Structures are given as structure tokens and as C-alpha cells.
Amino acid sequence: MDVLREAGATLEDVDRLAVAVGPGSFTGLRVGIATIQGLALARTLPVTPVSTFEALAWQARGATGAIAAWVDAHRGEVFATLLAPDGRTVLAPATALAPEATLDAWRGALAPFGGVRFLGDGAVRYRDVIRERLGARAEIDAAAPRLAAAIGWIAVTGPDRAVRPHALVPQYVRRPDVELTRDRRQAAAKP
Fold first, then answer.
1. Which of 38, 39, 56, 182 could form a disulfide with 69 if both were Cys (CB 3.0 to 4.6 A apart)?
2. What is the mean pLDDT of the chain?
């Protein structure tokens, strides 16, 4: 509401919403998506879903090398994807691996690119691993990402991407801990 007030606007002036659909924390994604769905349903507004990776890469527009979007996945892992300078995904699907394993998996894909710009809290957290493995080829953007601004700009420039609120789908890269724990317990209980 502060942003609307600063812009001299009200909620009634809003004709479209946008939301990060992940990857990120399971609870954070669920809360964010549910909040936007509630607002969108109440006002009958479309919603533009935006990947966290896309929002990070938007901040590197104009880059000349590869773009590595790394989100801290906790448990010693990063949610990661590698993008070409034009934003096209180089490796799919996104992964949830240890930083070292991520860089090992990317070894061949990084070869055509001179440098790699790393963005996201995962890159900041594991910058020592990145520098150890890639040296001067790696540029680590330590600035706090402006995800909300990027998501807003992506939504404004891509109105054809908007969907109805019920069509929002979180982008999970790994299964939730609760499912993993349940499966381990079920496997242990089998004779």
C-alpha cells in the first residue's frame, strides 16, 4: 500500500497483478501466491506469474556472458539455472544441488561463454566456491536483488502472459521436506 500511496494511486487503479512463482521457500511461495490470488479474485484481475530466475536475469539484461541465477535452497544447496545473455535457458531443468555439483554439471555448458554473471542470494552465499572453481571468469553481483521491481517490469512488458488467479502454479525445483520425510518413514516401515 505504501508503494501505491507514493505513486499517488489506489488499489482501484491497478489493472493487473504479478507474483514470483519460484523457486524459493515453499512457505514463502505459498503465502505470496495465495495473497495475490485473493486480491486478484476479489478484484477480478489477471495475474502475471514470473519465475524468480527470470526476475534475477532481468537485472542482468545487457550482459555479454552467461547469466547464472542462484537462489539459496538451504541444506547446502542452490536452486540454479544457466541462461544465455539473451535470457534463453541454456540448461534445463533447473536444479537443486550443492554449489560444487552445480558447477560440475555446468562445466560443458559454460565453455562457449567468456564470463558468467552470478545473481541471487545463493551466489552471494557461495561466492567462495564460485571463485575457487571459475576464478576471474565469474562476476558475482553482491547487490541485493530488486525482485519486486523486476517482476513488475516483466509483467508490464508481457501483458499476454497474464493468467487467471487459479492458474498460478508454484515452480518447485525439489520436493517439499514434508514429502521427503513421509516417504522415508513409509520406506522404513515396509517389511
1. 56
2. 92
